[in-house]
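Case study B.
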Amino acid sequence: MSLLEIKNLSIHFVTRYSDVHAVNGVDLTIEEGKTLGLVGETGAGKTTTALGILRLIQKPQGRYESGEIIFKGKDLLKATDDEMRSVRGNEISMIFQDPMTALNPILTVGDQIAEVIHLHGKCSQAEANERAVKMLEMVGIRAERAGEYPHQFSGGMKQRVVIAMALACNPSLLIADEPTTALDVTIQAQVLEMMADLKKGRGTAMLLITHDLGIVAENCDDVAIMYAGEVIEYGTLERIFHNPKHPYTLGLFGSIPSLDKDEERLHPIEGLMPDPAALPAGCKFHDRCAYATDECASCEQELAEMESGHKVRCARVMKGEI
Amino acid sequence: MGELIRVEHLKKYFNTPGGKLHAVDDVSFVINEGDTLGVVGESGCGKSTLGRTVLKLIEPTDGKIFYKGRDITDITEKENKQLRKKMQIIFQDPYSSLNPRKTVSELIADPLKAFHMLDKAGRAQKVAQLMDVVGLSQRFANSYPHELDGGRRQRIGVARALSLDPEFIVCDEPVSALDVSIQAQILNLLQDLQRDRGLTYIFVTHDLSVVRHISTDILVMYIGAMVEKCGAKDLFKAPLHPYTKGLLSAIPVPNIDHVREKVKLQGELTSPIEPKDECRFIARCPYATEACKQHMPEFQEVAPNHFVACHNVKTINNM
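Model:
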């Protein structure tokens, strides 16, 4: 049995003026101890999917239109608020993109980590404090610094504190939402390496949200590419990187300047992502796609299995025309 | 092609309560017409300050800046304003660098107005032409910046910089705030403009794959000082300074068959306030020796057009 199975998840934000279709029929699976990379551009629905798993979608605008989120055999969408509270931070925890705003500025970092342990661990305050200091040392921060406030740490150090907090209760699933986007490249390498080591040591599964295909290549087992709220290509790391099929995935690869090949020009995808409040009919990508036919503009596309461990949402790829 | 910009021993120190902050410390380079100098480094290494000081948006503390052989370091405010027509800048954040109360056409016409160029009809014509050049559809002429996405806003920034027909543009992280597919569109636009108009760029960025793609030469900075400078392709083929090696091997590569030798850098940037007279990279360098503590290494040419500031460059690279 998979650790987490998301089936046909749709999340809409409904206001008086608009109906934003942020996530549309997403299916994802995460196996125990594995890392799934969720890739896409701004507004593709990556973060909404992640928040959706933890039931952190803001009511009343945010609505689950359909779907199931099965975690360890139980549907989280049917869980009570009390049950959810014991899942969050305990069994599933999250690392947010911006470490500058994810920490409470008026609590010391030691207290913030101890709070999580105390809440979920059913242990004394003293024991929680002791374990918090151990967590800090594990992410490479000296024990003496436990009494310092977030503003006394650099960006990379703050992200380490956030990671220590997320791992404090030994969760079985870690959701990391662009954990290194705000960091410099050498610090990013340090943080990613530390996360990989900790994950391996504890057997934690991870949903890694990123827009950087380089980070995916070095850290993930499986990859899902999202576009306009849909998963448009899904498969093992090898299948996606050796044999990308969907025109959007190809466009993403073509947009990155290479580090060892000389190219005169980049090959970007023309146009922009559609407005999630007014998604086009048919394939959501058809108006930017070089291979689109009249059929693409009218028929909804299915995420279909192309080969074992590789699914694509494109009728023309499935017919072997691209 | 002749030289367009020459910078000699440029320094910019800022006063802070803790002492002088060395944002740019003894930087020299030459850029020829039609070339692009890429400036890379981590946050706080002084790359943006360098770009702005060359344009004289910030007064240098010491050193000289030459434009087409003419010393522009101490020219009057009036002369400086005339020079602005030839030297422009594209800012990093298209969300905060545009006046939210002006329409797209007003924004693009602003530089022309500031220099009293053309009459109203002429300006309108020029704005329409510029919008075409940067790929902005005419239907956005009366839109406000908040109605546009990041890529289109950055196109406004490019159009503004082009409006006075400059020869030299400092691009200060122009694509960092954009998604990768939009980033590629803007990079292609900048390259086309350079080819068609013979523009010269300083391209400031922290993204190494972007800088390799667009630059002729690359300058690597670390805490205000020059660390390495050479041709763009050479830098990626054979980096010589330990910092450059670490920086390059820290980039995640979107290729799963790529196995690289990794030079891991420990620690973080040290403080740029009153740095000691020693190699600035000493705290993070895996090759540091006693000599590195004695004084700051000189920036010297170790191979044709390849400059490095490192005491141990020969031993590290078996040269």
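Residues 100-165 of chain B form one domain. The remaining cases will be described in the next quarterly update.
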